[in-house]
Structure formats: structure tokens, C-alpha cells
Amino acid sequence: MTPCKVALRLEDFCKIFFDLERSSNHKWRVLETSFTDVLIAAFRASGAAQVNVDASIEKKTGADFEVMLSPSSGLPLVFIIQAKRAAPSSKKSTKWSYRELFHKPKKSSKFQVETLVDYCAFPHPFPHIPLYAFYHSQTAASTISSEGITCLHASDVHSELPNKLARKRGLHLCSRYAARTFPFHDLFCSGCTGTTTALNAIKRSYSQWDNADWEKITYEREEYENGWLSFDQKWGEAPATNARLLIKT
User: Which residues contact residue 32 at a Cβ distance below 8 angstroms, ignoring those fewer than 6 apart?
Assistant: First the structure.
């Protein structure tokens, strides 16, 4: 099965998965990590990606998983992804929010989004794109007219930090970000050149690179990919995130 088809099926399944909580009258709490595990397992089981998992420290990268798209020619892209689920804004509210969007780990001086953006800004040999993956139930997706999984460039969240510090309201609402998101499957169905309309957000990180940068790397491409997948390539002090998916296109 192609990565594109896997992503499309996951978008549909996500809505069913998170509706389990509602159908149980919220007696069963469904977490982002639960579905992220399903997502990683689906790519591996389908043969759409090479997958490796490492029980590392998320607080160093601000992400839940990484995806490398490696085309047969041209520059690879690595997406550094933090997952957040949509939940009702309150028990009686009809609005939906990403409640943990501005998560700040205990004993940390930085918000999670700051860590995510800073890690991607570290000198890597090719683009690292900080993204949020938003998970929606059927009810949430219908309310905000969204797919089951959407993505948002982390800079859109990072830019809201001054408002967060000023304690402005409404910063967690799904509707605030809906117009700037794109479907998760666009990462896999539109190629990885970063030139399609759906991936305009990615251009913010991609535009500073060109294919010549890849030619400057002295080691073999396959050797690097294998090292990245096995967590041998750890740039600076930041360790790998929980899982890495290598997809060759």
C-alpha cells in the first residue's frame, strides 16, 4: 500500500477512533499517544515506510514522531511532528479546542512549541519542518469542517505566544487555526517538493534550501538514511524523538 493511501485511511479511522470516547460517555479517555501508536503501526504494517522506535526524551525535541520523505532525486525533507487532539472546550460547549496546544513541560523554561521550532532551526544537513498534527473525532471534524487529521506549521502556534503570555482568550480554539491547516495526506500524496498550494506553509522552512545543499554532504545517501533511521544521526545535544519513519518516493 502506498504512503498516500495509508494516510487517507488514517484520516478516516482517526474520526472513528476518537468518537469511541464520546460513545462511552467519556468514561474512556482517548489520548494523542494512543492514536500516534496506531499511526506508526499502520505505516509499518502496510510496508509504506521503514520504521524504528526509540524510547527517548520528547522534551528535547518537542515532537512525538519524525517522518523523512526521501525522493529518488532531490532534497529529502524531515517533518518533526507534535500531535494534539481536539476536545470540547468545556462540558457544555459546542466549540472544540486543542487544549494542550501551549503545553509547557514541568521544570522547563520553554513552551513545547519553542522547543519544537528551536530543534528544527538547529543546523541540519537538509530541511527539518516543525509541524503539528491535529487529531479530530467525527463530531469535531464535522463541526469545524475538517479532515480527521490535519497539519499546521508550528510557526503559526509560536507566533501566538505573546498572546498566550498576555492571557488572551480563544487561543486554543480549533476554529482559530482551521484556515491555515492542510490534510495530513498532503504530505504523502502531493510529493515532497514543497511546491504545491496545499504545502505553502512548508515553504517557510523549505525556501532557505536548494538541492545543492544535499550535494555538500560527503557521506553516502543510503548510509545517512540508515543512520538516521537507526537513531545514529543525532545532531547536537538533541536526541531523536519517539519514532522515525523513512519513506522513499
Answer: 64, 83, 84, 85, 100, 135
What is the spatial distance between Cα 220 and Cα 189, in angstroms, rounded to a whole number? 27
Consecutive H or E run containing 243: strand 243-248
Is residue 236 a contact partner of residue 122, using CB atoms and an 8 Å limit? yes
Counting beta carbons within 10 angstroms of the beta carbon of residue 100, is it exposed (0 to 12), middle (13 to 18) or buried (19 or more)? middle
* CA angle in degrees (0–180, nearest 5) for 8-188-182: 70
Tens digit of each residue's pLDDT (9 = 90 or more) over 92-146: 778 999 999 988 888 778 898 998 898 888 777 777 889 999 999 999 999 999 9
pTM of the model: 0.83
Contact 39, 184 (CB under 8 A): no
- Beta strand segments in 42-178, E: 50-53, 65-70, 77-85, 87-88, 96-97, 128-135, 149-153
Q: Is 170 left (phi over 0), alpha (psi -120 to 50) or beta?
A: left
pLDDT tens digit string along 6-63? 999 999 999 999 988 777 776 777 788 889 989 988 998 888 777 776 645 566 778 8
CA distances from 86 to 35, 70, 133, 168, 235 (A): 13, 31, 11, 20, 32
End-to-end CA distance of the chain: 13
Is the distance from CB of 183 to CB of 11 less than 8 angstroms?
A: yes
